[in-house]
């Protein structure tokens, strides 16, 4: 019983060296945890921005390809980023790159199709050989039988060009007009 009372009255505690050692060890453990957390967050941002760029590009490209395949004719090709055609129902549809947005214009109404566009190139062919992947390019709207669409997209939110979150997706598709006369 006397030893218990003596231990209860003992007021020695920890030395300064012991406290500093514990603080240093806890600091190292915390630094390791913060590093792991930051790497996980960075990986998430890279992945989510990559998915956003790919998904936006894929959806826009699929819509353009579907409409172009059923087009009756290409009516106007003022540049490599602007095209007007008549669809299977006789409606005039125009795709135009303005800044970093591709607009779909039909019936005088402009609808943004996709944002975050880095480049959008249209190449027009009067004749295309799929076996050799070569064709004769044309600037005459009435003779277009195939169109190559090349789309490079990024994220719609602004990200520094040097940042890991600055992800881009490049997609290319060749479309042969089925209803071309």
Radius of gyration: 31 Å
Q: What's the count of strands? A: 9
Quaternary assembly: single chain
Average of per-residue pLDDT values: 85
Order of helix and strand elements from N to C terminus = HHEEEEEEEEE
What kind of sheet is the major sheet? 5 strands, antiparallel
Question: How would you characterize this protein structure?
Answer:
By secondary structure, this protein is of the alpha+beta class. The chain has one domain (14-176). Helices cover 34% and strands 35% of the residues. The protein is built from two helices and nine strands, in the order ααβββββββββ. The protein has helices at 2-9, 16-69; strands at residues 73-79, 82-86, 92-98, 101-106, 109-114, 117-129, 134-137, 146-153, 169-176. A five-stranded antiparallel β-sheet has the order 1-2-3-4-5. A four-stranded antiparallel β-sheet has the order 7-6-8-9, covered by helices on one side. β3 and β4 form a beta hairpin. The longest helix has 54 residues, at 16-69. The chain is rod-shaped, with a radius of gyration of 31 Å. The model has no long low-confidence stretch (mean pLDDT 85).
Keywords:
single chain; 181 residues; 4-stranded antiparallel sheet
